[in-house]
Amino acid sequence: MSERLEDIATAMVSGGKGLLAADESSGTIKKRFDVIGVESTADNRRDYREMMFRASDAMSKYISGVILYDETIRQKAADGTPLVDIIKAAGSIPGIKVDLGAKPLAGFPGDTITEGLDGLRERLAEYYKLGARFAKWRAVIDIDTGKGVPSTNSIASNTHALARYAALCQEAGIVPIVEPEVLMDGAHSIDTCYDVTKATLVKLYDELYAARVVLGGSILKPNMVISGKKSGKTDSPEEIAEKTIKLFREVVPAAVPGIAFLSGGQEDEEATANLNAINAIGPHPWKLTFSYGRALQAAPQKAWSGKASNIAAGQAAFTHRAHMNHLAALGKWQPALEKAA
Ligand code: 5MM
């Protein structure tokens, strides 16, 4: 496959394929394993991820790339094959999470700043050698308007860090996924989500221009415009689609080849229905697909539950969700397809 940044970025979002976000850090994967009663050991994490990467139908037809964690990009399957080689053999692209997590932002209670820029040039060079052709950095923007969260400083600091990260990635021949996640955990309305996401994306593209990032060789990984979970309101897919697209048309340059959404705590089918509604009102200037973590993995995690005898069931659950999201990325999903399965 071509090594041009623009070609890699295009391959990541085309043909209704999307990304598997399997980059849970040690603390996050432990939380996921706790739910299914599995101890979070290196071997269990390897077995679980190997199960998904060996789901050949899902990986070859629906998953364009996999975001890995530092441990996983170095791991070998039970038979000694590097996990990266299994991903590549399926025609999928290995990627790597390079941020070191969100820490409290000094002086701004409730805001966080994502760390990991120091030494990033050297880490990217190593990840390139290990096979990564794209990377991901997640900035976390919470909403708590009563407490002044997010602050202007949080948006400025996080988007500046995203731009510095993206420039370093492109220097290393790696496509940056820029992920400014406006959390859906709060009690805010969909219109507040719209305003905060808009402020974040406007600043993000200012910073990316200033850092001379080539937009054609980058991917945006945003939240959808959606009400906070604690608001008690469930928005229709049509409203989410209409507001999300209205916003993106105002602020995301057409030079960006693709937008790959995070699921952010949406239920599996909800994330699929919302992506489908977004694509159903196209055509759009960019490809719109998925880069889901929880909405792709909750079902296979439950089906697998740490037992070797459940590997086929786990792979079937993963393949089904990947297939449904593939259809949603093409605007061709229907609820009846879930029931049929
Ligand atoms: C898979 O989860 C990713 C890693 O999270 P931590 O660094 O907190 O362990 C996360 O960045 C993920 O890639 C995105 O948030 C999208 O995942 P969801 O579950 O929101 O689709």
From TrEMBL:
Enzyme superclass (EC): lyase
InterPro entries registered for this protein in UniProt: Aldolase_TIM (IPR013785), FBA_I (IPR000741)
Superkingdom to which the source organism belongs: Bacteria
Example GO BP: glycolytic process
Record keywords: Glycolysis, Lyase
Lyase listed as a keyword: yes
CDD domains registered for this protein in UniProt: FBP_aldolase_I_a
Record keyword Metal-binding present: no
Biological or metabolic pathway of the protein: Carbohydrate degradation; glycolysis; D-glyceraldehyde 3-phosphate and glycerone phosphate from D-glucose: step 4/4
Annotated EC: 4.1.2.13
Reaction equation(s) it catalyzes: beta-D-fructose 1,6-bisphosphate = D-glyceraldehyde 3-phosphate + dihydroxyacetone phosphate
Any one GO MF annotation of this record: fructose-bisphosphate aldolase activity
Family (UniProt): Belongs to the class I fructose-bisphosphate aldolase family.
Protein name: Probable fructose-bisphosphate aldolase class 1
Species of origin: Mesorhizobium atlanticum
Taxonomic classification: Bacteria, Pseudomonadati, Pseudomonadota, Alphaproteobacteria, Hyphomicrobiales
